[in-house]
Amino acid sequence: MALRVASVLVAHVAVPALEAERTRPASMSKAVVSDMLRGQIGYNGMVMTDCLEMGAIQKHYGTGEAVVQCLLAGVDMVLVCHTEKKQMEAIEAICKAVMEGRLPLERLVCFTPLSGSLPGDIGF
């Protein structure tokens, strides 16, 4: 029996056993989000990040680049929770990445789970 979970939060931890770039956060890792979580495990619910305003993310990536990297990894929802300036930086980075062809516009389509809808059909 498959466990039906509406959403998962991917942390900003390094998982060197799964990611070739040993210090890359799981939240920005295609190997973790798309290949392992979605591919190997078969998870088809919503994947979200922890807040991208956390210190290590800001120090090594910045909000804008972090948002783009998370979306490219396969994350559905990125969290930028505290400051309007950082939220605007995220929006601008997404727009720029789409315009430059780095981020396919299709990645921004509203989340639709592959089996059922969110919480109401989960059976809680």
Describe the protein in words.
With 124 residues, the protein is α/β, with parallel strands linked by helices. It has one domain (7-12, 22-110). The chain contains four helices and three strands, in the order E-H-E-H-H-E-H. The chain has helices at residues 30-40, 55-60, 63-73, 84-99, and strands at 7-10, 46-51, 77-79. A three-stranded parallel β-sheet has the order 1-2-3, with helices on one face. Strand 1 (7-10), helix 1 (30-40) and strand 2 (46-51) form a beta-alpha-beta unit.
Work out the oligomeric state of the chains in this entry. Answer: single chain
> Major sheet: size, sense and barrel closure?
3 strands, parallel
Radius of gyration: 15 Å
SS class: alpha/beta
Q: Based on CA inertia axes, which overall geometry fits? A: globular
* Unreliable residue runs: none
- What's the average pLDDT? 86
Number of strands: 3
Q: Largest beta sheet: what is the strand line-up?
A: 1-2-3
What is the first-to-last residue Cα distance? 16 Å
Can you count the helices?
4
Percent of residues in beta strands?
5-15%
Number of domains: 1
For this entry, give a set of tags.
single chain; 124 residues; three-stranded parallel beta sheet
Quick summary of this structure?
The protein is of the alpha/beta class and 124 residues long. The chain contains 4 helices and 3 strands; from the N terminus they run βαβααβα. It is globular.
